[in-house]
Amino acid sequence: MARRWYTALGVNLLLGVPGVVPLWMLWYIASNWPLAELGLTVREPTENDGVMPALVLCGPVVLLFAVLWWLANRPLAERTTLTAGGYWLLSVLATLLPTAALFANS
Hints:
mainly alpha, 75% helix, elongated
């Protein structure tokens, strides 16, 4: 069953639902510090604590999601008939799909 590409699609779509939270956290950090310094975004006006508290709170959540995503995908990648590049591209895009759907509907 794991040889089919839609197994990877389903697993990564399911991982993408809770994956919305770490992706939002990454966007929050990026938009308030490096992108705001470059003038590409506007910093949150009430954000005056600096980047360290955000990294302390967001870092473990993002790291935990990345580890879970890797642990879920590594065994599937070895057993699928897709090429390595095709499998990882499918996995990343399927994980980002729920976040993209939220952006499109907002």
